[in-house]
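Practice problem: TetR family transcriptional regulator
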Amino acid sequence: MDSNSSRAKRTSLQPLRAAGRQRVEELLEAASDLMAERGYEATTMAEIAARAGAKIGSLYRFFPNKEAVADALVQRHIAVLEEEYAALSKCAATLSPAALADVLIELLVTLYPRVKSLSALMEARTDRMEIRDRARGHAIAGIAAALRVCAPRLDEALAKDIAAVVLNTMKVLRGMITKDAPTTPGAPDELRRMHRIYLAERLTPFRNI
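Answer key — structure tokens:
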């Protein structure tokens, strides 16, 4: 039985031994692959264990339910994004809106091997809304921070609105490249062009130039 319906807020076990840490890595990698392929809702604990080549008891030993697995993945994805957004914010002031647009739209494509299940978790329909909201909120906040470095006079609320549009554009491009979204050979370049025009129009009035 998949424990997705469990409401209990039990914590994951943090292994102390190297073998245990390795097993957790394998389980989370399997979970990330499955959620990227099938979505959060369709992925079961039994499938995660099977993909990792582990017994179901081993999975439950470390993660009491699927929500705990999702929590662990979100924490890992956020750590990756924090590193990337920090680096981006350092250079955003030197980038034109069009150049920043190019960097941002490619970010999910570049990071995909490390955050495979991020999009699936951001779209998850789960009783524990904080899983989805935390993933979305952190992504939007990081993008908005970079936008405000590039355009310092941009209002925080507007920056978040623009960041939400940027995030969805990033997800569409990744879907086009991985063939998960309807596309044609030239469509990704057209999306990139549209994204540059959009950010240039929205950010230029708020830049200190």
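Discussion: The CA atoms of residues 151 and 205 lie 8 Å apart. Students who identified this feature from the tokens alone can consider the problem solved.
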